[in-house]
Write a structure and sequence with these properties.
- This protein is α/β, with parallel strands linked by helices and 246 residues long.
- The chain has one domain: SGNH hydrolase (Rossmann fold, 3-Layer(aba) Sandwich), CATH 3.40.50.
- It is built from nine helices and six strands; from the N terminus they run ααββααβαβααβαβα.
- The chain has a six-stranded mixed sheet, with helices on both faces.
- Helix 4 packs across helix 9, helix 5 runs parallel beside helix 7 and helix 7 crosses helix 8.
- The longest helix has 20 residues.
Length: 246
Amino acid sequence: MKPIQPSGYGSRFIAIAFAPLLFPQSRVVLSHLPTLPEATGLRYGKIAGPDPLRLLVFGDSTAAGVGAKTQHDALAGVLSRELHERFGRGVTWQVHARSGVTSGELRSFFLPVATTEHYDIIFLTIGVNDVMHLRRKRQFAHDLAQILDELRAASPEAWIIVPGVPRMERFDSLPDPLSSILGARAHRINRGARQVIEGRYKVVHTKPWPIGTPGFFAKDDFHPSATGYAAWARAALDFWQKRSAL
């Protein structure tokens, strides 16, 4: 794993300046990454128990479980088991996700189906593809605000957990200068998320992925493995529980 580098450096202008190198490099890097499928299995399920919590996992490839073999070992499966163990309650869970979606695509094409039911907890994975497409912070913030507004309208009392975008400058799969530029963009996207989330009712912006966990990454060194999803779910729920009264 790459050493930790300072975040907050750079901007879209740096990306533009490096564009002659960045875009060819990004195409080569991405074309050589192993193409992993979304996790197999049903995208809904339940764990028996009293007063079931209703969980929605909504978002991009990590919500879809890329890097894990089945939904049991993916984000929805491990979140459901963690919630059951922590609170002694049943859990009904649902996944609405698609690999590769930006926040704008998630809002435009997938949000309507995610707002047809009521949930108690919504885990929203978003931002990495906005970084990869070099979208502006304000574009991402606009999309995130609309997504949160519509999720809140459909589930007025739900806790909405929005994980921070990972430290992409630490991805072994991304060489410099690509990793440094994407890391800077991830930092800006996280700043935009915090600005949107601040003061919103029952919305929590958790820390980025715990990528220092041994075995965190799948074989593409880009998505979490089953081990990574378990570590991420625990860390995110730990952070959320400190701010909830569930």
